[in-house]
Every structure is written in C-alpha cells, then in structure tokens.
Design goal:
It contains 25 helices and 17 strands. It has 651 residues and is an alpha+beta fold.
C-alpha cells in the first residue's frame, strides 16, 4: 500500500500523503536491518490462501504482494530500471516475507511481555507531520482523511504499521547498539588475521590458445539465445515534457515607469545621501579604567595599543552606517560617535556591557542617487520579481489542473506551451539507438522523474534550476527491456563467440595444468608442458590482515588462496574473460595474537561494529521460534509466479 509514495512527491497531494507515512517508512527501513534475517520460516503446514502464519496472525497473499511492491519501489530510488522480475529473482520476495514475519513475531512477543504502544503515541506521530497541519498550524484531521480516501488507504492500516514497527524498535534498539566485546572473544579472530599464506600463481591467457574454426550461423544463433541478457537494452522510456522559463514570461515582467518610481519612493532611504565611518572601540568594565584609557588615547596613544596595555582587545568597524553601528553598540554611543569629527575620541559612555571608549578613524560621505541613476537597477530587480510572480502563477494554475486530473495535452493547450517528445531513453538519459548521442544534463531531472513514474500516472511538475523555471513532465510510453535483433549486432556476437571459444579452450588447458599439479608436478613444470607462450608462475604471499585492510576488498586470487587447503591447486577465471589463473597454496603460517594487544584491540573494534546486529538477529530468531512460524510453500510460489507475470515492471 505504500508503493506509490515516492512517485507522488512532485504534487501537492503527493507531498501530503508521503508525509502521512514518513514515520512508517523510516521505521520499516530501520527494521529492515533488524528483521532482514535469512530464511527461518520452517516447514509448510498452512491451509487456505495465506502465505504464512505467525503465532495467531496470518500473512495474507495480498499483504505479501503489497509489501513486495513497496520494497521494490524503495530499491528503485537507487536503481530506477530495477524491475519486479530482477527483484524477485535476486531474493527480494524472500527477504520481504522474512521481514514481515519477523515484524509480526516481535509485535506478538512484545505484547506477551506486557509492552504497549499507546494510541496517543501513534496519534503524536501522525499529528506531528508538518504537511498535515492546516491554516491554523495544527493537525487537520479532515485533510488526513481526505488524503487516505484519495489513495484508498485506511486509518487502521497506517496505525497498524506504525504500531508494529514501533514495537520492533522498542524490543531491538537496546541490543542493536551493543558494542562491547570481550578479549577472549576477540582473540581467535585476532589470531586469524595474523595468519600468513604462501602460494604460487600461473596464468593461461585466452589470447594464446587456438579458438578453433570460425563459428557458423547456427553457432551464432545458439550463442545469442543463450546470452540474450548480454545484448538486452535496458528498459527505456519515451518522455513528454514542456518547459516554462523566465524568458517565456519576459514580456509580462517588464516594469512600468510608475512601478519604478513607486519602488524608488518606497526605498528612498536606501538612495538618500549617507555617511559611513570607520570606528575603533573598546568596552571597559569600570568607569575609572575607561577614563584612564580615554585620557591615554587623547594624549596620542592608539586605542588598540592602549587597550592591549590594559589587557583588553579593541575592535574596528569599517565603513559602518549609524543604524548598523547602533545595533552593535547603543543608540547613545552611536549619536555621540556620528556627531563628532574624524579623529575624535569619544567616551567613556555607559552601556549595558560597561563603559565604551571609541575613536573615529575615518568619515566617508556617500552621495545620494537620483531616480535616473538607479532606474536600470530598480527595473532589473522588479523584472526578476515580476517574472517570479508570473512563473508562480502559471505553476499554480497547472498544479490545480493536474490535481483535477487534467491530461498533459490539456495542460499544454491551456497554457500554450511547446511540447517535446524524447526518443526512448534509458535511465541515464542516453539514447541507445544513437551511439553518437550523449545524455542532456538540462533534462536530467525530467528523465529521473519519468523513471520514477509508473504507467498510468498523471503528469507532474518538476523544478528546474534556481531561476523559478519548471517543466510539465509526462510518461509517454515504457519500452520494455529487450535484446537487440541478432541481425543488428552480428559483428558483436561474432566477436563474443570467438572470445568465448578462446576462453573455453584456455579453460581446458588450465584444467590439464591443474590435473598435473594435483598429481605432484611443480606448477612451473606443468605450465611449461603446455608449449604455449605464457608468463612464468610467480609467488603469492599475504596475511589475512593485509587483505582485510584493502578498502576495495580482497583480490579474487588472494581470496581463493585463503579458502584452500595446503598443497592443493585451483583454477580461477581472470577478469574480462582474458584467461585462467592457476593458484597453488604452498604453506600456511598460523597466527597467534596472545599478548598482542594491538591486534586484539583491532579485532575487538571490528567485531564491535557488527555485534549489535548479531545480537538482534539471534534475538529475532529466538522470538520467531517462541511465537511459532509456519509457511505455505504453494501459496508463496503462486505469489512469486504472479509477480513475475507482471511483465517485469514491478508496477
């Protein structure tokens, strides 16, 4: 039921409804880290159409589908082209079901322990949403129910979600923040990090292995079919938009002579002659000290030096007008300072902070400016103001039309705008059918908005830049992800077939090398027997701490070496299908962190970052076992099939 929130934020109603469940979304996503456990649902044993039974509650098919849609929409904020098929196939549905089950189990367990989430607490979360406050600044219940009715939600659904996730937070938050780890627990991990391994690595390049005869048309067709995903163009969208800019309301934004004259009169003080002064001053706590300081300055000592000698610090204000100076000193001091001549020492004068001594360092008279002198300046400011007002009026009128379900064509016709239709673009804004085209940064916000929309959504308003310009954006058509026809990419497929055959041939050679090594032959000798121009084997040495410290993650060859038994060898595909590595582990030097406090502290710090989550996962697992969980495998399979049958859009 929450899947629509993200794509509604571009309209007035959308912003409101998004905020209605802001607390729910925040809690649900936080609980995703808390309850996103591996599958612990047990066996089947449910009759009827429910997908799971959690204690006395049921997870319905509709709830699972709805929550899967919600999760997909959340992921699509980061991956706009993610579709339901990919989401389900990558474990998204299973993870969603686990989160629902864990959340329900935690709620029931909390209730059994006497925990409650009061109605007032739920009311407070809803009432505190700024977007639901009416003209008086207080929560508007009519607005709240209007929004719920418009989106076919119920107050009970919203409250149930808030209550359930709040209960989960209350149960798990203390454990989630745990960071204490005992030395005895950290010692084995610290010792493991000190372990060192030594091996040898060889390489069979695919480029030096014969790939065989040229592929036939049948070979190309078979390879193309088997690797269709490689040649698939991502989902594309045809976008319709019309831009409204300040330039389009330029004629409405030209100020009249009367408007310019009125503005000049309203700001007359701004253009009147004025006087600016540079003033150095110091505030002394007692009158006697201030008098002594003033006497010293009048005798020729600079105010800064005299203040420093008294243990004080003078401050200087440069080119300040009287009103501004009065705001930092006092009106009494300002009157005296601005009535005296340049070079005069003023004070001491009593203020709230003490006794002020000031010296006028410089007096600058700024001449006034006539209407003719500032006409262009005022005209430019008024023009910008009127353009903003005109754009705002158009924006509000279009927004009102869209709220009344006006179509894109109706809005364009009503406002006499110039519509633009893009070719089918991918999420980056590029046109995959035109290799020379590049994404246009100017329409990047429009492309992003279109990829957040679902088919059937109405047009939306998207702000552009900071000059008040905006665009009306509508999703014209969604072009599903589909492989390019083989005829169009024959040359690319031919190249890929040849590369794949070379890689497979290199793999066979690597397998022969590996077999000889595992029978006892030295790795270099086994490589030499291939009679191929391949590089010599080289040593490979590292500790677990070294590969753990690499922010990019362990190189695949080292990661494999640290998963092998001594005196064994394995093959590993090289990056970019360039060939095959042969890795032999020669020796293991176990680590021993006993007495190594630095290593133990490092291990404790690493474990501390995840121990809270581990506690929460174990707690949630125990709660699920205590409450009792059963799943209905056939019902889950039907949900999976239904979601996969949505055409891959997830909408």
């Amino acid at each position: 039921m929450l899947a629509f929130f993200r794509r509604l934020t571009h309209s007035k109603v959308g912003v409101v409804i998004t905020f209605v469940v802001l607390g729910v979304i925040a809690l649900a996503f936080a609980a995703g880290d808390i309850t996103g456990l591996s599958s612990m649902t047990g066996g089947a044993g449910i009759t009827g159409g429910d997908v799971a039974k959690v204690g006395k509650a049921e997870v319905t098919v509709n709830e699972l589908k709805t929550q899967a849609q919600t999760q997909l929409e959340g992921f699509r904020q980061e991956q706009p082209t993610l579709d339901m098929a990919s989401f389900v196939n990558q474990g998204g549905l299973d993870g969603t079901l686990d989160r629902i089950i864990s959340s329900m189990a935690l709620e029931q367990f909390g209730r059994s322990q006497g925990m409650v989430v009061s109605k007032r607490a739920v009311d407070g979360q809803i009432a505190s949403i700024p977007a639901l406050q009416g003209p008086t600044g207080k929560f508007d219940e009519n607005l709240y129910h209007q929004v719920l009715a418009q989106r076919k939600l119920t107050d009970a659904q919203i409250r149930s979600d808030i209550l359930r996730d709040t209960m989960a937070q209350q149960l798990t938050l203390p454990s989630n923040g745990a960071t204490q780890v005992a030395n005895q627990l950290a010692l084995p991990y610290a010792s493991l990090l000190l372990e060192k391994r030594t091996g040898t690595i060889g390489f069979i390049p695919a480029a030096v292995v014969a790939a065989g005869p040229a592929p036939s048309d049948a070979d190309l067709a078979t390879f193309y079919k088997r690797n269709a995903a490689r040649y698939t163009v991502p989902e594309r969208r045809i976008i319709r938009y019309a831009i409204v800019t300040p330039a389009q309301v330029k004629t409405q934004a030209v100020p009249t002579d009367a408007e310019i004259a009125k503005s000049y009169q309203q700001d007359r003080a701004r253009y009147a002659p004025t006087e600016r002064r540079t003033i150095t001053q110091v505030v002394v706590a007692d009158q006697a000290g201030a008098t002594a300081l003033a006497t010293k300055v009048k005798a020729g000592t600079s105010l800064a030096d005299a203040a420093r000698a008294a243990g004080l610090e003078a401050s200087t204000q440069t080119g300040v007008e009287k009103a501004a100076y009065a705001g930092t000193a006092s009106s009494q001091v300002a009157d005296a300072v601005f009535a005296a001549a340049s070079g005069t020492v003023i004070g001491p004068i009593r203020t709230q902070l003490g006794w002020t001594v000031a010296k006028i360092d410089k007096v600058e008279t700024v001449a006034g400016r006539s209407l003719d002198q500032v006409r262009s300046e005022i005209a430019a400011a008024l023009g910008t103001q009127k353009a903003t007002q005109a754009l705002s009026a158009i924006h509000d009128k279009i927004d009102d039309s869209l709220s009344g379900n006006a179509t894109f064509d109706e809005v364009i016709a009503d406002q006499k705008l110039q519509p633009v239709t893009t070719p089918a673009l991918i999420a980056s804004g590029a046109n995959p059918d035109d290799a020379a085209s590049k994404p246009d940064p100017a329409i990047a916000p429009l492309v992003a908005a279109a990829f957040q929309a679902a088919e059937g959504d109405g047009p939306q308003l998207v702000q552009l830049g900071t000059d008040g310009g905006f665009a009306v954006v509508a999703l014209g058509r969604v072009v599903r992800a589909t492989p390019r026809p083989l005829a169009q990419i024959r040359a690319a497929v031919l190249h890929d077939v040849a590369a794949d055959r070379a890689r497979q041939a290199a793999r066979r050679v690597a397998g022969e090398v590996l077999a000889r090594i595992n029978k006892g032959m030295p790795i270099q000798q086994s490589l030499a027997q291939t009679k191929l121009p391949i590089p010599a084997a080289r040593p490979l040495t590292a500790s677990r701490a070294q590969i753990a410290a690499d922010p990019r993650g362990a190189p695949p060859a080292l990661a494999l070496m640290f998963s092998m038994a001594p005196n064994t060898a394995k093959t590993l595909a090289a990056p970019n299908d360039s060939g095959w590595f042969i890795i032999k582990l020669d020796s293991i030097a176990p680590g021993n962190a006993v007495g190594n406090q630095a290593a133990i502290r490092g291990a404790r710090g690493t474990i501390a970052r995840s121990v809270g989550r581990e506690y929460v996962e174990q707690f949630a697992k125990a709660v699920r076992a205590d409450v009792g969980v059963k799943t209905n495998a056939p019902a889950i399979a039907r949900v999976r099939a239904d979601l996969l049958g949505q055409g891959g859009t997830g909408n």
